[in-house]
Write a structure and sequence with these properties.
Oligomer: heterodimer
Order of helices and strands of chain B: HEHEHHEHHEHEEHEHEHEHHH
Largest sheet of chain A: 6 strands, mixed
Structural class of chain A: alpha/beta
Strand content of chain A: 15-25%
Number of helices of chain A: 18
Strand order of the largest sheet of chain A: 3-4-14-9-10-13
Largest sheet of chain B: 9 strands, parallel
Helix content of chain A: 40-55%
CATH topology of the largest domain in chain A: Rossmann fold
Number of domains of chain A: 2
Shape of chain A: globular
Radius of gyration of chain B: 17 Å
Number of strands of chain B: 9
Shape of chain B: globular
Distance between the termini of chain B: 41 Å
Helix content of chain B: 40-55%
Distance between the termini of chain A: 52 Å
Structural class of chain B: alpha/beta
């Protein structure tokens, strides 16, 4: 399929999924060129093509190598603590007064979030490629901590790029990374947030590509990253699917997850893509309001563009300059979104909704009080939407929320906001 | 003066890029190609510097279009882009500045735009190229567009009478370099080192071997970029290359405009370009 520039051509075709073959087609991506429908690809300097080709080759080998897969499973089981539980949130359910709410407890993983699933997987790939050093970008710091953890576990040298603004917001995670021997590199360029940290990590990778592996933390960036990260995170959806079949003898009615770059959502949704009876809902950060610069709702307000090596929905101005974004949660504060999410949106396979800062805080409070679980502010967005939705649905319905991370890292920020 | 007529029908035209290299080759000289980021500190200053460069010995001039997330550029150029964007620079105003330069009576020096693909994609390839051609640009370098994604753009540049200058890196295998050369016109941009734009004191010696083998598969002029910062580097490399591109070392001089004033910064840049181009012209 030819890739055409200009917005009209791209946004034009949104298809209503209606046949099972279409659902299969939606799950059989990316193609050999790294395309999810129109999205994805490799928009990177020539210097990086070598590393991307090498990574793709090694990944394909590893994917089909039983020893690699067994090793990965062992670390996920014995080190990360998988499988994570599927927990019935009885009091949230009662409060909402409708559908049953279940939480897929990624917050119980070692390091407190889903990010570790991908970090361990990619660190094993880096070892397979005989690279000595890891670099990563981080927003909330969860991916940075996960990468620092994998680096310590496997003995890699490690540097994490983090926007100077996020270094301030996420002091605890900065401490954790440093404690594990990782160098935290504050990025002052541009807007000093996740997007600038990503630019910096990509640049650094270009000059060190021969001995360094770049662990991208979300389903973004050039091919093969969106595919690799999705695959490593798909353990979430695979387990959830099986747990539902075991516990309820059927699949859930709705599955929800928050979406920044979209890795926990991609990992949760992907194994359900062909189950057309399962409704999938992604929740983006609505920030303060819907004015440009005040939110991070890329799919709701963005348009197709090129950022960080792939074609996907992007928040940008008429010239193609990336827009500033805002979210209360550092992990959702990103102007792009994974290309597969753009594809799912266009294909109408996943519905994307928006939850704002105040609503997310409400989600944080209600979950803390009623369940004794402090959620990450990213997760809190999805909690709010889940409560909303559960209230509208019948009691026999089952809603599963991807509980992507724990809230310790956000306690100081929430306390600061409550004082204001 | 109508900004929206097709440049190829106008009387006053910059030389074709290929013509510049043919002429230099016949004189056994090396092209000197300075890079200037548009809009730092403002577009008037950019126009003023660029208009002084042909007389200082620039054979082609590369104009950087500021982009918010330039993954191929080093800190010096990114900082210049950030300064320009903070002033609210728009793509259209850059085209207007270029048009103003290229339609000056007697203007011959080809101007090449260095543009991130996001800026080309957003308005649409055809619309962007139409404006590029109308403004008098001779070619485009899109540093984040490898051949694998360049199908649409490389077909369209021909229709718009523009050259597309693609990049080869030290990590590019030779059969891939051959493909890249096929997609390119004007010249081939040979990245000297693995990494981003920026100044370096030494270029790797493996570059010689790579240039020699690329020479065997294409007749396109080969220009070296990334990491050239001193006129003393010229003699060593002119034997292998048809042109030398200097960016960060110029931008660093431009950065000083705030302290020493624009006029002094401009004179420093002009002198620097003169020095480089003198070395390039010595046979």
């Amino acid at each position: 399929m030819a890739i055409k520039s200009g917005n009209e051509t791209l946004v034009a075709e949104r298809k209503e999924p209606n046949s099972s073959t279409l659902y299969e087609r939606i799950s059989q991506v990316p193609d050999v060129r790294g395309r999810f429908g129109l999205y994805g690809g490799k928009y990177v300097p020539e210097t990086l093509m070598f590393a991307l080709d090498q990574l793709e080759k090694v990944y394909q080998e590893a994917k089909n190598d039983d020893i690699f897969q067994q090793e990965l499973s062992r670390y996920l089981r014995e080190y990360v603590g998988r499988p994570s539980g599927l927990y019935f949130a009885e009091r949230l359910t009662k409060e909402a007064g409708g559908a049953k709410i279940y939480l897929k407890r990624e917050d119980l993983n070692h390091t407190g979030a889903h990010k570790i699933n991908n970090a361990i997987g990619q660190a094993l790939l880096a070892r397979r490629m005989k690279k000595k050093r890891l670099i990563a970008e981080t927003g909330a710091g969860q991916h940075g901590v996960a990468t620092a953890t994998a680096a310590a576990l496997f003995g890699f040298e490690c540097r994490v790029y983090m926007g100077a603004e996020d270094v301030r917001r996420q002091e605890l995670n900065v401490f954790k990374m440093r404690a594990m021997g990782t160098e935290v590199f504050p990025v002052h360029s541009g807007s000093s947030t996740l997007r600038d940290a990503t630019n910096e990590a990509m640049r650094e990778w270009m000059s060190s590509v021969e001995n360094t592996h770049y662990i991208i933390g979300s389903v973004v960036g050039p091919h093969p990253f969106p595919m690799i990260v999705r695959d490593f995170q798909s353990i979430i959806g695979k387990e959830t699917r099986q747990q539902c079949l075991d516990q309820f003898n059927r699949l859930p009615d709705v599955v929800l997850a928050c979406v920044g770059g979209g890795s926990n959502a991609a990992g949760m949704f992907y194994p359900f893509i062909e189950d057309k009876e399962v409704e999938l809902i992604g929740v983006e950060a609505g920030g303060r309001n819907s004015n440009a610069g005040e939110h991070a709702s890329t799919i709701a307000f963005g348009s197709p563009g090129v950022l960080h090596g792939s074609l996907s929905y992007v928040l940008q101005d008429e010239d193609g300059q990336t827009a500033n974004v805002h979210s209360i949660s550092a992990g959702l504060d990103y102007p792009g979104v994974g290309p597969e999410h753009s594809f799912w949106h266009d294909q109408k396979r996943v519905e994307y909704k928006t939850v704002n800062d105040q609503q997310a805080l409400e989600g944080f409070r209600i979950c803390s009080r009623l369940e004794g679980i402090l959620p990450a502010l990213e997760t809190a967005h999805a909690i709010y939407e889940t409560m909303n939705l559960a209230a509208k649905r019948g009691k026999s319905e089952i809603i599963v929320l991807c509980f992507s991370g724990r809230g310790d890292k956000d306690c100081a920020e929430v306390a600061r906001l409550e004082k204001q | 003066m109508n900004l929206h007529t097709n440049r190829s029908t106008e009387m006053n035209l910059p030389q074709k890029i290929s013509a510049v290299f043919t002429e230099l080759r016949s004189k056994k000289q090396t092209a000197f190609i300075p890079f200037i980021p548009a809009g730092d500190p403002n577009l008037n200053a950019t126009g003023s510097i660029i208009s002084a460069l042909p007389r200082a010995g620039a054979d082609l001039i590369e104009i950087g279009f500021p982009f918010s997330d330039p993954i191929a550029d080093g800190p010096v150029i990114q900082a210049a882009y950030t300064r320009a964007l903070n002033q609210g620079i728009r793509v259209e105003s850059i085209f207007e500045m270029i048009h103003h330069l290229s339609s000056k009576p007697g203007w011959k020096t080809p101007l090449v735009g260095m543009v991130s693909y996001s800026l080309v994609f957003r308005p649409g390839v055809s619309k962007f190229l139409t404006r590029a051609n109308q403004s008098g640009l001779s070619g485009l370098i899109v540093p984040d567009l490898p051949i694998d994604e360049a199908e649409e753009l490389s077909a369209a540049v021909r229709e718009h009478h523009l050259d597309l200058i693609m990049l080869v890196s030290p990590l590019t295998p030779i059969d891939r370099a051959a493909k890249i050369a096929k997609y390119s016109s004007g010249f081939l941009y040979c990245v000297s080192t693995v990494g981003i734009t920026g100044e370096r004191t030494e270029l790797p010696s493996s570059l010689q071997a790579q240039l020699k083998s690329i020479r065997e598969l294409t007749s396109l002029p080969l220009c070296i970029g990334f990491g050239i910062s001193q006129p003393s580097q010229v003699q060593r490399w002119k034997e292998y290359a048809d042109g030398l591109i200097v960016g960060s070392a110029i931008v660093r001089r431009l950065e000083k405009a705030n302290e020493i004033g624009m006029d002094s910064a401009q004179s420093e840049i002009v002198e620097f370009v003169q020095e480089f181009s003198r070395e390039c012209k010595i046979r």
